[in-house]
Design brief:
Elements: E1 2-9, E2 12-18, E3 24-34, H1 40-50, H2 60-69, E4 74-82, E5 85-95, H3 107-119, E6 123-124, E7 127-128, H4 130-145, H5 151-163, H6 177-181, H7 185-198, E8 201-207, H8 211-221, E9 248-254, E10 259-266, H9 276-286, H10 293-301, E11 307-313, E12 318-325, H11 330-345, H12 351-367, H13 372-385, H14 391-398, H15 403-412, E13 414-423
Parallel strand pairs: 2-8, 9-13
Antiparallel strand pairs: 1-2, 3-5, 3-8, 4-5, 6-7, 10-12, 10-13, 11-12
Helix pairs in contact: 1-4, 3-8, 9-12, 9-14, 9-15, 10-11, 11-15, 12-14
Length: 441
């Protein structure tokens, strides 16, 4: 795979990954803004409204018919947060010419169609259609309200909200109910017009077409995009240490049959010049897989929880340990989770455990090479961070992480907040369903 990056027009950047590995090409368009409570709901709503229709294809039925004519190509809205950067737009996939009966190249038509969704929505009097806006508002409200149905994801998000209460990262990528309800189609139209003039745009392509061909197709498709003064002032603020001298504790009660314990950590001084490979290997050794200390000890050996795992939000310098426990196991589970971290700090792990962690990280990274969607997400994050090494290179670095590297990361980690979701009637324990996730990095 060959990676290259170029600027097509002011503030519009293309990450191009040439690959003959897949039968389908993928392409994405993301508007880039700072994550904030004031605009998050509009950002989350906008691509869904735009996806409802264009001037050429004014409703979803006609859009679907056109995509069917393009051999089942797809264009879907996407909303993500990468650290404290809000990314929203469209993701497209379409067959490569070699796998079509007539060998047709769909790149130009898909570029044009995706640009139309962004630049030429179906409007009335220059305004976004009220019916489309109101319909998508209801869907977004349902999505936001549904997060409570997945208690595990809900607990993780609540921990983040409390831990980062003075930071933009507390804001959900979907916004909140109050923000969605306040959106009016005229307000959304004005905001949309401002975004087109001021937002940086990140484009991504993965497929067989050469760079020059992709550049020409996208530059032509986006030629009518208004460009004014581009707002490049987007990024993520890193807080190295815990907010207070002692870890904060936040408890919430709900009608649940299983306790949800989440420990929120700051990665600390290791984020001043982060060794990404070492941080990933530390996380794998401590808690992110079936060979980790949390899984083997807290869950399997001591049976203190139904699940226990750690996850790194690298771009924000956070680590979250999520576990499901019996209500009366709170103290024991929390103490053992912290004891396993202390063991890593003290170097109390075998060479075999370290090798398992290295291999797990390398395997996950190399698995990303088998999915155009995973590659798109990886390279979008790399572009926003100003980095240009691929998953294979990072996997190789993971294989070189030493015992001392892992211990240094572990010693840097600092507990910031403990969140516990407990029951109103604490009598039984059952597994909960998982449906909602807003923890992406």
């Amino acid at each position: 795979m060959e990676y290259s990056r170029s600027e097509l027009m002011p503030g519009v950047f293309l990450s191009h990954l040439k690959s003959d590995k897949f039968k389908t090409a993928c392409m994405s368009l993301n508007l880039i803004t700072q994550l904030s409570r004031e605009t998050a709901s509009m950002n989350a709503l906008l691509p869904n409204v735009l996806r409802r229709g264009t001037t050429r294809y004014p409703d979803m039925e006609q859009l679907s018919c056109r995509l069917d004519e393009l051999y089942g190509a797809a264009i879907e809205p996407v909303v993500r947060r990468v650290g404290e950067i809000h990314c929203f737009g469209f993701f497209a996939s379409f067959p490569e010419p070699a796998f079509l009966p007539g060998g047709e190249a769909l790149l130009e038509e898909m570029s044009r169609l995706m640009a139309e969704l962004l630049l030429s929505p179906n409007t009335r009097g220059g305004l976004l259609l009220p019916a489309y806006v109101d319909s998508e508002k209801e869907k977004l409200l349902d999505l936001i309200r549904s997060r409570v149905n997945d208690k595990r994801g809900y607990a993780v998000q609540r921990c983040l909200e409390e831990m980062c209460c003075y930071e933009d990262f507390a804001v959900s990528r979907f916004g909140d109910e109050e923000g969605v309800e306040a959106i009016h189609y005229k307000k959304l139209t004005r905001y949309y017009r401002d975004l087109l003039r001021s937002c940086p745009v990140e484009l991504f392509y993965c497929g067989q077409a050469p760079l020059a061909e992709v550049e020409d197709a996208l530059r032509s498709a986006l030629a009518g995009m208004p460009r004014g003064e581009i707002n490049y002032d987007v990024g993520t603020e890193l807080r190295m240490n815990a907010l207070e001298a002692e870890p904060r504790y936040y408890e919430e009660r709900m009608d649940v049959t299983q306790g949800k314990l989440v420990l929120g950590f700051r990665l600390g001084e290791c984020m001043e010049d982060p060794d990404r490979a070492a941080i990933h290997v530390f996380n794998a050794l401590y808690g992110s897989g079936a060979t980790s200390k949390l899984f083997l000890n807290v869950r399997e050996k001591l049976s203190l929880c139904y699940y226990a795992s750690s996850a790194i939000v690298l771009r924000k310098g956070l680590m979250l340990v999520s576990s499901g426990i019996s209500f009366d196991k709170f103290d024991a589970a929390k103490a053992e989770i912290l004891a396993q971290l202390e063991a890593v700090r003290n170097g109390d792990f075998t060479d075999e455990e370290l090798n398992w962690a290295r291999r797990a990280v390398a395997s996950d990274l190399r698995a990303a090479m088998d999915s155009p969607g995973e590659l798109e997400g990886y390279w979008l994050s790399q572009a926003l961070d100003g980095l240009d090494y691929g998953p294979t290179e990072l996997a190789e670095l993971a294989g070189e992480v030493t015992r001392e590297d892992v211990i240094a990361v572990a010693k840097s980690v600092e507990l910031d907040l403990v969140y516990f979701l407990r029951g109103e009637n604490e009598n039984t324990d059952e597994e909960e369903e998982e449906a909602y996730d807003d923890t992406e990095a």
